[in-house]
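User: For my dataset I need records formatted as: sequence, then structure tokens, nothing else. Please produce one.
Assistant:
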Amino acid sequence: MTRPTGTTPGAAPPLDCPCGGAAPGRSPSAPAPRLAACCGRYLDGAAAAPTALELMRSRYSAYVLGRTDYLRATWDPATCPADLDVDIDAPDAPRWLGLQIKRFEPQDERHAIVEFVARYKAGGRAYRLHETSRFVRGDDERWRYLDGDVSER
């Protein structure tokens, strides 16, 4: 990952995609795809994520890059928190270090599960966010994050 903490105001986005191209079974040593060829097209609105897996990866990239607008647009309105704010420049902001997709499980044409582990540092300590996320596909055919079961260590 070129810049794991995101971008500073006025800076260009990283060349490599923050998600690293994470997928079940993908080697952690595999090179990260370019942002433009991976999550960038979803973040910029050029395309909608075709599966919950791509949506999950693009949402991770949005957290890294501080793209609250994208996070809100891809969160089911029934569960999106009113106080969602991602300030990557805040002194206590997490510094995202990497994403691993443990499993991707389409349940039917409208529901899917993605289990992932995201590593980050905050306050000088390292953490692992392990979540099993649920995604729904709306009438507009777009995938949205619904909710998830989280465990932090």
